[in-house]
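Supplementary Text 2. Reproducibility record for the structural model of the 361-residue chain.

All settings were left at their defaults, and a single model was retained for analysis rather than an ensemble. We include the record here because the model underlies the residue-level annotations in Supplementary Table 4.
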Amino acid sequence: MNDRAAEGAIERGMRRRSGRVSDTSINLAHGSGGKAMRDLIEDVFLGAFDNPLLAAMEDQAVIPIADLMHYGDRLAFTTDTYVVDPLFFPGGDIGTLAVAGTVNDLAMSGARPLFLSCAVVLEEGLSVDVLRQVAASMKRTAAQAGVSIVTGDTKVVERGAADKLFINTAGIGVVARDVAIAAGNARAGDAVIVNGTLGDHGTAILIARQLLALEANVASDCQPLNGLVEAMLAACPRIHCLRDATRGGVATVLNEFAQCSNVAIRIHEPALPLREEVKGACEILGLDPLYLANEGKLVAIVPGGDADRVLAAMRAHPAGEHASIIGEVTDDPRGVVVLHTGFGGQRIVDMLVGEQWPRIC
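Retained model, structure tokens:
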């Protein structure tokens, strides 16, 4: 082998070589832009998210437009930041949230989610093993949703300047040509559907924080919903409104629909799917489950004539097996959500004011 060939072999070998983090906890050098940062990225993130676009290790992912146009004619783009406390909770962790939450934001427009970015803010002293666990959760959830994490960023702040780990994910998806979902599309006669039990995530976080001394097996509902939305659109391409009920819960989503569409939305208390454990937690703490956060639940407004077909499609999917029709859209009183109680009364359900619990997602 001549000198030039030897040099080429050495260069290729160096490109293949992956860095390895030897530290047990994050320090400021991991955000310096030097070798320690490169080793962290290659070891933890590239190792977990490996795909051709990410492996190029450029400052951006370059995606052929032709690949996107295969799925539709409009681009959906979203971003969200995740600051949950604690980082790990029954049913998931901050990594699961970061992927599922952004996938779901894309899916609520009817888009097919395709690519995600991942930016992390790490506090000095965070365990590297904790970061590995979070990255592994992101990998699993991305695989479940059928998306790729193709670019990202890493920042390290001094001890005490953050709370262990914050994650931002942005996402790109493509909307099919015949899909037109928007908060202003609800019409009188439409049906209101949710895909399962409400308030599970909020209750799981309360228990994980040990703010609620219950012997209850409540896990977060955190999950990607794009597969469920795909099944719903196959049953009814004319879905009017979709939104995932995260912070502010179902009540806030319904108020947004009622106000944007200038209609009334009436829901029925006996039809609300609630776990007994969630009911009990709300009674103890004086909370309303309609305002509790969810991370794997959506609210759909569909034409009344298509409601049974959509419901059947949802119940045939693992993410919608407990789907229920909880109400309907009427003309009056416009811009208002009305709850019909189990006792035969009615009350107005306002949008959430303030915050029931901080750092929920």
